[in-house]
Amino acid sequence: MQLTLNRSRMLCGIVIAAFLAATLTAAAQTTISTGSIQGTVTDPTGAVVTSAKVTITNKATGQVITTKTTSAGAYTSGALIPGEYFVRVESPGFKTLNATIPVEVGVTAPGNFSLQLGETGQVVEVQESAVQVNTEQATVQGVISPQQIENLPINGRNFLDLAQLEPGVQIQDGGNFDPTKKGFSSISFGGRFGRTARIEVDGVDISDETVGTTTQDIPQSAIQEFQLGQSMLDLSTELTSSGSVNVVTKSGTNAFHGQGYYLFRDQSLDANLPSAFHTPFQRNQFGGNFGGAIIKDKLFFFVDAERTKQDFQEPVVAGPPLQSSSGTFAAPFREAEGIARLDYQISRNYKMFYRFSYDQNSDVSPFEATAFQPMDNTTHTRDHVVGLDFTSGTYTHSIRFGYMKFFNHIRTGVTDSTPFNPTSPIELAIGPDPFCINSSGVIPDVFCSGQPFLAPQSTPQSDHQIKYDGSRTIGAHILRYGGGFNHIQGGGFAGFLAD
């Protein structure tokens, strides 16, 4: 059986914000892979201050953006990489104001300031508020911070498992709904099935268009921020009927930083369960990252790699009268994943980045719990992303281009080194021919052995994607527009029971 798919998808949207209010209430300039700062500048009486100079500086990279308030006293930063920013507001006849504002992915940070009368040389420091209310976006969303990502333990270090830190979100094992998703997680928003959530990394879609969820894993330690959108999604979000996951990877900074780790887990550390269920298990995970500046304030690098080596004896428990056929078989899991990223500050208002990521995993396991039918499931994914963000006057522009290649192959994990003899429990487990028997007359209680019926099969997918998000500030309002094109080529080949 062979299936081919060649599909092109065009997503274009133009939204005009026209609120009749004295303050900036228009849609934000935030995109799916960036954040932003916007607000208004007023004097002590509440009147707007026009042509005030606003300087926004990234504390980690030294990137500087300058803008001025409009005739309505409004200003906006354009697209910003998530992180902490130093904001300086200057206007003749007023004291200079300094403030620190954290910027999160997919979130418009409020930056409304009231200037005090005085000399420009006098400086007023504004302390960061512990609780900030975002009045610029109606989206139901949450952002998982770098501190949470680094400090909270995640079993298996699967990056999508971070989503369960948000209310209303559940994690599903991708292997439960499709054999090609062994080793991957899926996300359920509000009880909806996990296949439909859109997964984006650095503004580029990495969703599996055949069976859903993601096409790749990325190292947990390479994530800068992790955003989940559940309803009223941002305009630049890919089309979805449930929710979205937006991940931003780390970039280098002016300071050199790195880390290394080794995680170990063994069945000897588990609870003392009955011997029938206390099967051998061992997991080794190790990796590290390193980043810094090649040219201070201009060119930055970041690399991260992780390796998982897991060994497990998969238990197969048969019901009566086949109890003697119960046993285990080796079910190893291996994964190697990594990313490399370059960020370049072209000029004061122009910045770009390039990222390459790679993921390879292999898993041996059955699709059914009561089966001596191991499948050898292997996935290879590579991803190239280029991003460009720049501002020109009252216009902002964000461009993303991505190329992703995904390939999954499933073959039988059964050996045929010995003749098949159903009277021998051991040979029953490794026999090359398919063998199934209903031990009790109840359909779910079917015990199977031999070659898995889902092998062999292959599932490829490639994405060529380009996205553009733009905006223009018009008085106290913002006009947002953008478009996207994703050329998806996918297909599959299945020769079930034809290994």
Count of runs of 4 or more consecutive helical residues? 2
Backbone shape: elongated
Structure classification:
mainly beta
Mean pLDDT: 79
Q: How are the elements arranged and paired?
A:
Blueprint: E1 2-16, E2 36-42, E3 53-58, E4 64-68, E5 74-76, E6 83-90, E7 96-103, E8 108-110, E9 113-114, E10 123-126, E11 140-144, H1 146-151, E12 169-173, E13 185-189, E14 198-201, E15 204-205, E16 223-231, E17 244-249, E18 257-266, E19 281-295, E20 299-316, E21 327-330, E22 333-347, E23 350-365, E24 371-372, E25 375-392, E26 395-412, H2 425-430, E27 435-438, E28 446-449, E29 457-474, E30 477-494
Walkthrough of the structure:
The structure is a single chain. With 499 residues, the chain is mainly beta. The chain has two domains: 34-127, Immunoglobulin-like, CATH 2.60.40.10; 141-494, no CATH class. It has two helices and 30 strands. It has helices at residues 146-151, 425-430, and strands at residues 2-16, 36-42, 53-58, 64-68, 74-76, 83-90, 96-103, 108-110, 113-114, 123-126, 140-144, 169-173, 185-189, 198-201, 204-205, 223-231, 244-249, 257-266, 281-295, 299-316, 327-330, 333-347, 350-365, 371-372, 375-392, 395-412, 435-438, 446-449, 457-474, 477-494. The chain is elongated. The relative contact order is 0.15.
Task: Provide keyphrases for this structure.
Immunoglobulin-like; mainly beta; elongated; 2 helices; 11-stranded antiparallel sheet; 499 residues; 2 domains; 5-stranded mixed sheet; single chain; disordered N terminus; 52% strand
